[in-house]
Specification:
Chain A: Belongs to the binding-protein-dependent transport system permease family. Chain A: Keywords: Cell membrane, Membrane, Transmembrane, Transmembrane helix, Transport. Chain A: The chain crosses the membrane at residues 69-89, 131-153, 165-185, 191-210, 241-263, 297-322. The structure holds two protein chains of two kinds. Chain A is mainly alpha-helical. Chain A has a single domain, classed as MetI-like (MetI-like fold, Orthogonal Bundle). In chain A, 68% of the residues lie in helices and 0% in strands. Chain A starts with a helix and ends with a helix. By secondary structure, chain B is an alpha/beta fold. Chain B has a single domain, classed as 3-Layer(aba) Sandwich (Rossmann fold), CATH 3.40.50. In chain B, 39% of the residues lie in helices and 24% in strands. Chain B has a six-stranded mixed beta sheet, sandwiched between helices. In chain B, strands 2-1-4-5 form a four-stranded antiparallel beta sheet. In chain B, helix 3 packs across helix 4 (123-136) and helix 3 runs parallel beside helix 6 (155-167). The chains are: A mainly alpha, B alpha/beta.
Amino acid sequence: MADDTREAELVTPAADAAPAATVVVDGIAPPDTTPGVVPDVPPGQDQGVPPVPARRGLRALLPRRSGKLTAGIVLVVAILLFTFVAPFFTQDPRSTANERFLPPSAEHLLGTNHIGNDIFAQVAYGGQGSLMVGLVAGAIALVLSIVFGIVAGYRGRFTDEALSLVTNIMLVIPGLPLIIVISAYLQTRSLLVVAVILGLTAWPGAAIVLRMQAKSLRSRDYVSAARVAGERTPRIILVEIFPNLLPLLTAQFLGAVLLAILAEAGLSFLGLGPSGSITWGTILNQASANNALSLGLWWWFVPPGLLIALFGCGLALVNFSLDEIINPRLRLGPAAVKSVRKARKAGVGAGDDPKETVAA
Amino acid sequence: MSTLEVRNLVKDFTIRKGLRRTRLRAVNDVSFTLEPGRTIAVVGESGSGKSTVARMIAQLETPTSGEILLDGTPSATRGRGLDAYRHDVQMVFQDPFASLNPFHTVGHHLERPLRLHEVARGREALDARIHELLERVNLTPAPVFAAKQPHEMSGGQRQRVAIARALAPGARFLVADEPVSMLDVSIRLGVLNLLARLQREENLGVLYITHDLATARHFSDEILVMFRGNVVERGPSDQVILDPQHEYTKLLLSAAPEPANHGRLREEVRRELAAAGAGEPADRDRFGTRGL
């Protein structure tokens, strides 16, 4: 009922506003505007909005196309396609029916290893394992950094103190030794266990960045305005603050995936990786354990190493173009440097001839 | 009679400097009563506590002591009581570039309070109400503006969106914290006239926070002059402006850019500097507030 009455009040503003036109505000009689409307804003002056083809909503957050982004996406997508499509066309990566130490040939594109596994099949299949570890660890790190970063930053006070304490403790614990200790302690390690361990140690840095960002965002007027409007805290975090952190979160997620893949390769190389699974790291571990380098068996260690490097490079390139959204000055930086250089060449720079100014 | 009353409002901020903690009294014993259809202006320089008063009334800060009474009952600070309070008391922020979330459309900004305060339900009713609000603040064609992002609009347009948002729940009292100080001089009057028109239409009680004495006189019935957290002078607006009693009010008035005062402040500063140069300590405690 209350709603109805208010609606009735609001539905007839024109009738209420009509007498208002006769009220002369500030001694200025309303000019030839339609009666019933006080000329709050001169028409045509303020209404003219430049027809900029603006990007809306989520699209505004997408990076603009650039060489970096294209190269990064091509690398990442190509490697993803390779690891998920190639296994359908290769033999079983665990098959030992082949000759040992075969060099690359038409039949075995990347030759075979010490027990006759086809290395092309191993690399393709191992990519899935590496990516799985990366994604799971990245997701865990993302969730933890959101909880410990954004919630701490927004809530402040006691929550902040408690969550920051945990973050700081995790931050100063050296990551790799901890992972090595945990991995050595666990006798059998599945891919998932390794991923969880990596995820649990990868979040504190991101959490600290997010906490500072959330602290700055929460004092923005639009967050206060949402509180005045009556929004609840979880919704303010998710709807008002979260979207403004999306580019940062994406960059952190990609960074965490990249770090997890590298860390998994490192662990596997040390022999502490997932037992019984194939990843790029375990292939490298086997290669080094069997003296592939001194025997000159390049087809054994180069492909997995190269794939790790290229995939990391691709993710890093995508991340760089995301950085340009977070900090637009990065995008303008190279152009600014170029224009300064050009100006200097043309002899119009301000600081190009300090000697002459001194001499003069 | 519905009123918004503020009684003996005090706000202390704790300033941590290393291990030492000092307390800063931002607002000291402020009381006034806001009635529908009337405007009270709070005037003062930066740091005089006027925005803190606004934020306390909007329940963004908790008063150290004192109370805020809506229709004679103390306002709740949480839960349903707070929702009910916010249904009646809304706020317009100073900076229209900061008070709208750059991520969301104008429609979203208006839709949320409508939903939260259950003014309208369902897509069609909501859209109709959003368009109506936009038309009332002269943002037409409304459907076009509802779909816009904040960064596609000028400062004046944004501030009008902010005003529409404050009106959305059907508020009876509006706290306007320097609503035009961030706007172009050329559109300030337009936005103030808009506020005045909406006030007449809805019989709003408006708390107008400003540092501009001229607009305070034009748009308010009563003026409170604040200095370092204290209300140093109050009264009907014409009386305060035409017959200032307190030294600080006189200074504020003389600082206003008026042709007759041209050069006076400069002379004053020169005199003070000359006095300081002569080794004579300038009297910095003109208002008797040093001990506060």
